[in-house]
Amino acid sequence: MLRAMSPLLLLSLACSGGPAPDSAPGDTAADTAGELSPEALVQSLGEAGPYGVGYTEEEVDYTDPAGQPRTLRLAVWYPSTDTQGQAVQYLGFVDAPGVMRDATVAEGPFPVVVFSHGHMGYAEVSGFLLAHLASHGWLVMSPDRTGNTISDDAQRNTEIYFQRPADISAVIDHVARDWAATVDADHIVGMGHSFGGYTMHALAGAAYDIQDIAPRCYDGTDTSNFCSTMSPSYQAIFTQGLADPRIETIMSVGAGDLDLLAPASRPSIARPCG
């Protein structure tokens, strides 16, 4: 199922008029889509793209909305002109066929995918898909969600619900600064699975149903993870919202925790047309 998401993601950008990652300068994804039947386009995008795939790991340091310092391990996949290079193993033991560590970065600019893993995942959990996107000319960023990874306890606290969207915004800041020569900052796609899908809805502008939920946190009738460390200052963060207008399109797969978001706000968020 996840493998089928790659052409769907690219088709969604074609609908929105964004640039085709592996098209010639001046072409658009909509132009490319117009030249092929939908079936032929899906087939072509399901195959590896014209680029080699480079991979590197970086670190993102920022201050979260509550004023606390936070550090993220960041996995990066990118288009490369190299045809061979150093092999990669995610987490030191998961093989990544065809992916080259610290390979030469191809000349951009390239559109961006920022991926958010699910509860207790890790940055490379969907590495096969993210490497596939890089082969088609995407710059792909995926952070570990510190405190909510495969090596952490399953218990969540209130903070992780605002830290997750804030993490993605911090990654976009990092991309704009440290990858400025490679990135097409006008075309950023947010993509997430499960708890990462919730993250994308929040980033796209869905409002929190916080006025209804917070009183139940305080009186103890709601004992969910979301309420575990709720405070007036945290409530204010959710009231303000965590949207990031730099994200042009979202892909939310199997999103969880959508009951935290006001139903009336969901239809108005940005979403792919595919």
Describe the structure using short key phrases:
alpha/beta; 274 residues; 8 helices; single chain; 31% helix; Rossmann fold; disordered C terminus
In short:
The chain has 274 residues and is of the alpha/beta class.
Topology:
Blueprint: H1 5-16, H2 29-35, H3 38-46, E1 52-63, E2 69-80, E3 86-90, E4 94-101, E5 110-116, H4 127-135, E6 139-143, H5 158-178, E7 183-193, H6 195-203, H7 210-219, H8 232-240, E8 249-253
Parallel strand pairs: 1-4, 5-6, 5-7, 7-8
Antiparallel strand pairs: 1-2, 2-6, 3-4
Helix pairs in contact: 1-2, 1-3, 5-6
Q: In words, what does this structure look like?
A:
The protein is an alpha/beta fold. It has one domain: Rossmann fold (3-Layer(aba) Sandwich). Helices cover 31% and strands 24% of the residues. It has eight helices and eight strands; from the N terminus they run αααβββββαβαβαααβ. The chain has helices at residues 5-16, 29-35, 38-46, 127-135, 158-178, 195-203, 210-219, 232-240, and strands at 52-63, 69-80, 86-90, 94-101, 110-116, 139-143, 183-193, 249-253. The chain has an eight-stranded mixed β-sheet, sandwiched between helices. Strand 5, helix 4 and strand 6 (139-143) form a beta-alpha-beta unit. It is globular. The two termini are 16 Å apart. Residues 1-8, 10-31 and 270-274 have low confidence and may be disordered.
